[in-house]
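**User:** I keep going back and forth on a fold encoding question. It is easy to fool oneself when nobody else works the same problem. Could you pick a protein and write out its sequence and tokenised fold? Could you put it straight underneath, so I can go through it closely?

**Assistant:**
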Amino acid sequence: MKSLWDDNIADEFTNSPLDMRVYTSRLLGREPSLVLHGGGNTSVKASATNLFDETEELLYVKGSGWDLATIEAEGFAPVRLDVLKKMADLETLSDSEMVSVQRSAMTNPAAPNPSVEAILHAVIPFDFVDHTHADAVVTISNTADGEARISELYGERVLIVPYVMPGFILAKTIRELTRDINWAELDGIILLNHGVFTFSDSARESYEKMIHLVSRAEDYLEKNAGRDVTVSDNNILETDLLKLAALRQAVSRAKEAPVLAMLDSSEKARAFSNTPDVASISTSGPLTPDHVIRTKRTAMQVDDSPTASVERFVSEYHAYFERNNDGSLTCLDPSPRWAVWPGQGTLSFGGSVKEAAIISDIVGHTTNAILNAERMDGWQALPEKDIFELEYWELEQAKLGKSASLAMFVGKIALVTGGASGIGRACVEALIKHGAVVTAIDINPSIEGMFDNPSVLECVCDVTDQQAMGEVIANTIRQFGGLDIVISNAGIFPASESIEDMSDETWAKSLAVNLTSHEQLFKMCIPYLKLGLEPSIVVIASKNVPAPGPGAAAYSVAKAGLTQLARVAALELAGHGIRINLLHPNAVFDTAIWTDEVLEKRAAHYGLSVDEYKTNNLLKVEVTSHDVAELACQVAGPVYGRTTGAQIPIDGGNERII
């Protein structure tokens, strides 16, 4: 690992010790193998003048919820140093008391909660303190002979501390171990199975001590753990997408909330899944105890039956809880957070792309560490009692029953055709707003990069190309794990032609796009919707179905056929819990076909202003793409959860239809 220190950039952070603390914290945060997703914390001790012109000694320590990679000065909680040191001298202190006292000792009540390691940072007698969960160091300590290896590697230049619970207990332990120690003789502290502390009165020196200690561990692993395992092409299996969707459905049911299933089929993930004793090494514990909050203690093992795999994990989790519960705790959600799928790789389950990606990152670092440890003395995580203690610590239990209200479609997976403009684009935007992930499909290449959102899979595809559409649907399952909502929207409006003058091409193209492509979409999506969560299809039809107009035979007939197709599908699929409903929009003018020029001509034809033309309905309101999209979301959601086969107008009130 190389030092990222840059004198030119560092010069921009010399205004105060806190500024320099920000700079080196960001350097640590840029290394995922040091501070993966919130792991680790930093601090600086400095003087400040209060309102009464008194000088106070403060500890500025990383606040809860801030990422070291992007932290700002306001991300550090200012806590009175003397209070933290007094806390370290207490005989006992509960976690809730610790949080309360630390918060009361802050000089800025608007600052975030101080790190649970604030007391430990306070008792280390240097201005700058860095704490990381360095993969390489923890990997070495998570072996059968880990402590001896760490001692051999660092000698007396580090203080080795056997694992104890983070927070007050850890601070108290180190306080006792260092009462008679010469701190100047130490380069750092190694917390077995947990991480590394370095310290100095110089920000650069503390940071580079960390880099030095971790680099030595990386060199040790390279020398003693050998090469990475690789997978031959013969071991690469085609993903069973229906099984993936079934796994995601089973995990969601166990969690009693929808989740995404992110498949990592990289070479390293497949190598791990093919390890002969993977069932043992993936169920012995996480890389560091802190990860248990994200990943739980063990991975689910996927076998031939997705349902049975999940049920077995849930049963084993309940047994784990009962073994360690003292009778005062409430069992957390027992569903798995990640799984090993032999031959395929690893799966990560989360309610959003961000959550699933965080879990996937942690799993990737964990599995790499396990493989390295296995090539030495063998992987040996902390005993389950220690992991349980952190998973069920007092502060986590206090959060039960306080969950925030979630958006309607969190964890749901949707697909929208015609997603680059008009109603389709509005549907994509509305689904995102309501928490869904979305595959947005359009023949227009402009859809690529249109949404700039990791929750959207943007696909250029002609909906009449069955093979290409099949690949898009398969990619949706691979990307997100299943399918719950289909908004069948893609369509064209041919130029006005009477039946007598209509070309065969106009007729055929309208039927192909406005009818047949939808039938093919239904056919390809239904197997996955059967494995979806409250699955629903919403068809964007047209006012021309109940009230056709002259010159629109090709369009009206195709939309009428689509309506009949959806009605039959509602009859056929209700037994599988799949709902199908239709919307009949009219006079939606914020779409690509309604340019300013066209609007002006049409309004003039009726002797109306443009605004009068847009609101030429019974309610005298304009109907927008976003109005249609919001209704589509409601129809796909719980409000219409007992409705199927319905045809709903959204037109401001049309006399011909009424």
